[in-house]
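Final report, Chapter 2: Outcomes

The project's central promise was a pipeline that accepts a single protein chain and returns its three-dimensional structure in a standardized token representation, suitable for archiving and comparison. That pipeline is now operational. To close this chapter, we reproduce one record exactly as it appears in the project archive, with the input sequence first and the structure output second.
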Amino acid sequence: MRSSGRNSNRNHRGAGNSRDDRQKRAGRPRPEERRYDAGSGGGPDKPGGPGKSAKPGGAKGQGRRQGQSQGQEGRQGQSSGGASRGGPKAGAGTGGPKGPRTGPRQGGKGGARGRSVPARPREYDAQIEERNRARHAKPALKLPKTFGEAEGERLQKVLARAGMGSRRACEELIDQRRVEVNGEIVVEQGLRVDPEKDEIKVDGLTIATQSYLFFALNKPAGVVSSMEDPEGRQCLGDYVTNRETRLFHVGRLDTETEGLILLTNHGELAHRLTHPRYGVAKTYLAAIQGPIPRDLGKRLKEGVKLEDGYARADNFKVVENTGKNYLVEVTLHEGRKHIVRRMLAEVGFPVDKLVRTRFGPIALGDQKSGWLRRLTNTEVGMLMREVDL
């Protein structure tokens, strides 16, 4: 086994010598005669690196036998000739494949590649990103005002905000010619209106704009018909607190009278609803004790003389009769104080309980006592038509 190893080393030396002779005849120096600069900056895998400069003669043998021990590397370096004595010792510390990689951290190209670049601060990156955005941001185009800006809002938008449906449904109302603006039927889309000034009607009923509020309250007995009471009694203002706009009541009801009372911030509508000129009818249910004569309704319609003049009922009928208990309905358009109570008491039937069930076209319905509800646009339109608004 040992003799075969010597023969292989001898054959390897012979092949190396013949190759060196050819290189010498060609005018090129042999590998062991070349000079390498240790500070030129090459890596361990490039010519001029610290690994090859320390052991130039054993570079090729070490590349083929990376897994062998340092003693075998030394013997291969001695057999290759040249700087054979110092090659293995230097290569064991600096140039071997398994030695410490100190070359790339030195100067030259290898050092530049091995150094870690310090990271930029985040604030600097944010500034760069802001500058890039500002550079690529497109300014808003300023077009010349050739014809001026259109005034008002689109009609379908106003109708939708008033609760007449979606914008598409409001456009269909316009196509069906059911919408009027200032008394003229709208026949085309895109008309702009001013909700505060223009009169808008749908099917002959004026719609309520967003700035006006209309409520119906079923006033309980014992509540004072005022928004504030200096004596601290319960009043109408207790039912409409936390409102953005000031509301006021339309007409009055006695403290002991229950039923429908309207609240709004539309001053002109409230004024007309209570003015005798427009004669808005109001309906009451009164509980009285009988028996009652058949001509009671006729007497009330003909007029009853009171302290402040005659009072006449527009309509009278008996709604319910249980023994001596009668529930009668009285309709009149006057609004004097205690008018219904005084009329029935004058004909000999004092009222035990009184409830107002209707104010013009607005009915109390099944609304519970003490409940407040917002009027629909249809109801508001009927109220406005009642007083020619």
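Archive annotation: The radius of gyration is 54 Å.
This record, like all others produced under the grant, will remain available to the consortium after the project formally closes.
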